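INFO  loader      accepted 1 record
INFO  loader      residues=180
INFO  predictor   begin
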Amino acid sequence: MSDTLLLNADGRPISYLPISAVHWHISVKLKYLDKVRVVEEYEDRVIRSPSFEMKLPSVLMFYDYHFFPKTPKFSRTNVYLRDLFTCQYCGCRHDTQELTLDHVVPRSKGGHLSWENVVAACQTCNIDKGNKLYPLPNNTPYVPDYWDLVNQAKKLPITIRQESWKKFLQWPEKLVKIVA
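INFO  predictor   done
INFO  writer      dumping tokens
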């Protein structure tokens, strides 16, 4: 069956990174446990048991607000997102397969694996820089907060399951693709 979009108590998705969609059976469990209210339902999809029948929820909203972590987890994907999948040395945009993580201060010279010392770099620029301190990246690396990454993500295309989800995501219209 289909996925269900989970919204926070304020009407925004629980998570944008990735979009908070859950499998239909989890949405039924959340409704049964009375943790959420149904905002929208699928008109053509019904689940049944011998004593129970309900339309499958398309969008659910939690009764209680769930707080976001202030600092997102340090990960390769989040570094790429912070840097908008752009090499911080030559400025070219790349797919994830063509990008690497570069230590601004190389590990051999005392650099650490941290938000402030790692940038996205294409393979060519990373190899050219090697373990040298120069060149410096075009943008100084920083520790993003959750909403910095969400704002960066909203500059990129997204694929969603339902047309009705668009109004809850507030994503630029031209960047939304719907697949059933």
